[in-house]
Design brief:
Number of helices: 30
Strand content: 5-15%
Distance between the termini: 53 Å
Low-confidence stretches: 7-30
Largest sheet: 6 strands, mixed
Helix content: 55-70%
Strand order of the largest sheet: 2-1-3-6-7-8
């Protein structure tokens, strides 16, 4: 194990001679060991490099945990025995799932799940055992917006259990507050008992701006302030306008400690698979609204249990106990069928199958119920089309006939046709594809969603769409259809000629740009590029914003 330990080049401090004199005067006196600053440089090194320059080498040592090119660098860091007094993480954190980089030469990332496992487990206790401060240089690291909230299906479930409407609303609000797991909540749970976490409630400055700002703060900071475990007023004052805040890690008396304990019950690598599945069963026996709020964690863990693990006697027994719990199963499936979002309903059906609560046939029954029920109440749109097309169940024999037999499919609705097309209907495919040239934006979006999963079948379909685009009366509808066609990377010469011909007749700059976007992505070798180039130059409409995609197409044709 060899983690890099950069040597900091620090400026001279006026009080260093005094330390030396004190050591000489009292031979038994020994200087304190330097504090260890661990750095996780996922993206920009600016913050790390500034701290290395400004903090005295005699007082601070730096250990970079990222080992570029080593996929298991985080595991290596956990095994290294390094104990960090301060931890500096630099990386993008926009969606709150991982710290990542936008640098093409690097591929490292640090998922929140890895941090959770490190925090909950004994295998990585060293890194976190004496932490006093954590610096989270990334956007939204301490954002307070909840990642999940108790939806209306939670309210309905609470009322079915006997609560009045006001009582159900109060309970749902408490569930949202407890299980919301904002970025701030998650990182506070990970860095339990750490006195100071610095991070950003919204956008953070890029490293090239944060570095100089941090440098000015450290140049005037009191000696020993970094890794002292006390919030720095100067740091917060300097970065405050860019949304920096400081909070404490969660403590044993925090109202959210129960949620952390639940998460750690699944993340702690000291617990066996059987013990974790027993905890899953414990959660499933709770009120089903809590099951819904913990769905992310439950499906992630249950999905990670492999076939060979399931064959182990103690694990098999744990799954069998869940399978025989018919009372919990009934509550769970009732909630599943009432879920507001089709995506949530589908996830819960999949989890029920993995838990042993549904056979393959029963899973198909629930999937058909999901589709037909939503068709009946006109609850099918692009999101449902995306879900059905992406589901492995869409390829099951007989599913199309079963959905049709439900009697809720309406061929006049593009979203219904798209769902049937996802299940294998040829005529529904044709209706969905022709909706690309619909004057209705929602229909075009549905068709675009469908084509992401089932591309155009051949030149005939492309030619028909190209002809329909030319007949559309409004430029907005033409732009929507052309944008959809661009994603298909057209190669049919007849279609390309028709689209290029439209460039010379349209009086809409937006339509011309959409045509240029199609041609940029298409195989134009079948066209006479010289004629096309002359047409572009002659008929192009002036762009008030300067150069645009039409200019980009002209440059490509010139090089060709």
């Amino acid at each position: 194990m060899s983690l890099r330990e950069p040597v900091a080049r620090s400026k001279t401090r006026s009080w260093l001679p005094a330390v030396a004199l004190a050591a000489a005067a009292w031979p038994g006196w020994a200087a304190a060991a330097p504090k260890t600053v661990c750095t996780v440089t996922i993206n920009s090194p600016d913050e790390r490099d500034v701290m290395m320059r400004q903090l005295p080498a005699g007082e601070y040592r730096f250990v970079e945990l990222v080992q570029h090119g080593q996929p298991d660098w985080w595991a290596q860091a956990c095994r290294s025995g390094v104990r960090c007094d301060a931890l500096v993480i630099s990386g993008h954190f926009d969606d709150g799932s991982e710290f990542y980089t936008d640098r093409f030469e690097n591929h490292e990332a640090l998922p929140v799940e890895d941090l959770q496992q490190a925090s909950c487990s004994d295998s990585c206790s060293g890194l976190f055992s004496q932490l006093k401060e954590v610096y989270l240089f990334g956007c939204n690291t301490l954002k307070t917006d909840p990642r999940r909230s108790a939806g209306s299906e939670v309210l309905r479930s609470l009322q079915r259990a006997g609560m009045s409407a006001p009582e159900a609303q109060r309970t749902a609000a408490k569930l949202s507050e407890h299980y919301g797991e904002s970025n701030r909540d998650r990182l506070r749970q990970i860095f339990k008992d750490v006195p100071v976490l610095y991070g950003f409630a919204s956008k953070a400055p890029l490293g090239r701006y944060a570095g100089p700002l941090l440098e000015r703060v450290l140049q005037s900071a009191p000696a020993g302030e970094v890794a002292s475990g006390r919030p720095s007023a100067s740091l917060l004052g300097a970065f405050g306008p860019t949304s920096m805040v400081s909070v404490k890690g969660i403590g044993a008396d925090d109202p959210h400690i129960g949620l952390r304990n639940d998460i750690c019950s699944l993340a702690d690598d000291r617990r066996s698979t059987a013990q974790k599945m027993a905890f899953v069963h414990e959660v499933l026996r709770r009120d089903v609204t809590e099951v819904r709020m913990l769905l992310d964690h439950l499906e992630r863990y249950v999905g990670s249990v492999g076939v060979s693990q399931r064959l182990q006697p103690d694990v098999a027994a744990a799954f069998d106990a869940i399978g025989r719990d018919l009372k919990s199963r009934e509550r769970y499936l009732a909630f599943t069928r009432d879920a507001d979002l089709a995506s949530v309903q589908s996830r819960m059906i999949d989890l029920a199958r993995k838990l042993g609560w549904l056979t393959d046939t029963q899973q198909q029954d629930e999937f058909v119920r999901l589709i037909t029920t939503r068709m009946a109440r006109d609850g099918v749109g692009k999101h449902e089309v995306d879900l059905v097309c992406a589901s492995p169940l869409a390829h099951e024999d007989g599913l199309l006939a079963r959905v049709r037999s439900g009697g809720t499919a309406d061929a006049s609705k593009v979203a219904h046709s798209a769902v049937l097309a996802c299940l294998g209907s040829g005529e529904a495919h044709d209706r969905t594809v022709r909706a690309l040239t619909s004057p209705r934006p929602d229909d075009v979006e549905v068709a675009q969603t469908y084509l992401r999963h089932r591309p155009l079948a051949g030149a005939g379909e492309v030619q028909a769409i190209a002809a329909d685009i030319g007949r559309l009366s409004g430029p907005e509808a033409q732009v929507r259809a052309l944008d959809a066609l661009a994603k298909q990377r057209v190669s049919d010469p007849h279609s390309l000629k028709a689209i290029a011909g439209l460039f010379t007749t349209t009086r809409s700059l937006q339509v011309q740009r959409a045509i240029a976007n199609v041609l940029l992505r298409a195989d134009t070798q079948s066209l006479e590029r010289g004629d096309l180039l002359r047409s572009l130059r002659r008929y192009r409409l002036k762009s008030p914003e300067g150069q645009d995609v039409i200019d980009a197409l002209i440059r490509v044709l010139q090089r060709a």
